[in-house]
Write a structure and sequence with these properties.
With about 525 residues, this protein is an alpha/beta fold. Among the domains are: about 100 residues, Alpha-Beta Complex (Flavocytochrome C3, Chain A, domain 1), CATH 3.90.700.10; about 80 residues, Methane Monooxygenase Hydroxylase, Chain G, domain 1, CATH 1.20.58.100. Helices cover about 35% and strands about 15% of the residues. Strands 1, 2, 7, 8, 9, 10 and 17 form a 7-stranded mixed beta sheet that branches. The two termini are about 35 Å apart. About 55% of the residues are buried.
Amino acid sequence: MVLETDVLIIGAGVAGLSTAIKIAEQNKDSKILILTKTNKQESNTRWAQGGIAVVWDFDVDNFQKHIDDTLIAGDGLCNEEVVRIVVEEGHERVKEIIDWGARFDKEEGKYDLGMEGGHSEHRILHFKDITGWEILRSLIEKAETYPNITIQEHYFAIDIITQHHMGKIVTRLTPDIECYGTYALNKKTGEIDTILAKSTVMCSGGGGQVYRNTTNPTVATGDGMAMAYRANARLANMEFVQFHPTALFNPAGENPDFLISEAVRGEGAILRTVDGKTFMEKYDERLSLAPRDIVARAIDNEIKIRGDEYVYLDCSPIDKDTILHHFPTIYEKCKSIGIDILKGDMIPVLPACHYMCGGIHTDAYGRTSIANLYAAGECTNSGLHGANRLASNSLLEGLVFGNRVAESVNDSLATLALKQGIPNWNAKGTTDPKEMVLLTQSWKELKEIMSNYVGIVRTNVRLKRALDRLHLLYVETEKLYQETTLSPQLSELRNLITIAYLVTKGAQMRRESRGLHYNTDYPNHFDYLETTWM
């Protein structure tokens, strides 16, 4: 089947939905199609707990403070122009979603602004401990008011369509690569459809499932970044993978790991070793509220030198009403596995993969190196996060870039036409897979490779070993891809292997330690590369 639309948006999180709303708002004649590979309620956005960072109380806070905090966290690799854009435009974008129905907690009629690591002021708007869910709810409801927005659920984008699919040789040096849409697997029919669009916007989220421990949902398999790489788009800074310091240690195991929001430490919770001793004073004067890269490395180090499986988060400094009002989901989750915070039980935590700071390189309007392909959200390297994302800046980035992408798309739509002569997907010669264990075992091996060799602390030997093993997985998986009928499981595995390679190769190329990338062979900054291009 061939589908045609003016604008195709891949992904239905905060970036995708806000882009669609803004395009529809400014261009009521345009047809906008949003693809999501599961249902519209499932994305990384939904799982965001802590909140959205925005300058709100101008009596004590200002844009420059937020800019400075972001630049400090980014450890010298932020694009200051982009940081300023996101911080300054973010205030209006948040006011907009409040007008659209997003709710944030208030105390005595004023918004209750939280504090998180790396921030110099209280500026985190939140809705209990399910802020992402609340923002997603309001955006879905707003999007559904526009008749020119269609959300197609259970559609899995496979590849970006470029001149390559029309027989032209395309390399990373080709100067005029163009995007014409995507091939997508309709999971309901099993058919691979051709979707043609004048403009395509990649809002596909991150790839946290490449690691054994991750707070990301199972849909976070790096699909958009992998598709962009295969299409020869420019990617950057993939080595900077943020590990959230405090995921719940559950001896029963679960995927994803349950996140214990940084806002809990913002309210006064303290990190302790298993024998009850504090340790953050050895690593940073900001203690438990240091930026995430510092706290995650500190916890990782304590676990390794002591031989423990986790450290504790002591919530006793937080009063009971605050726990019940601000962190009801966290309280109930802990209680479900026998940990009662209200009775003084400490929460066992460990770092888990949380956010990818690198991705598809974009300019300040979300334009990529491929014509008519835009990108926004976690799948991008916009320049906002640099070497380490400041807590709660990601939802803000999605809103701001959604608006800016919409501006650029609407400016160009009238001059574009749908590409004709695109061939249908060719599945000739493929057969159904005989053993799904080949996929599941490769997925397990991939997670072990990345967790053991390309985690919080890296070495040259570990990175070389990871690349050698990843190559074997790549060869095996590409053979399956060529010979068997395409499935979501095979596509996700293939995409994750690509993400693993990009993270590992980027880490190998960066001969310094900076932000989220820490290599014991290069423990200091050498300013070796401003940006790692791929």
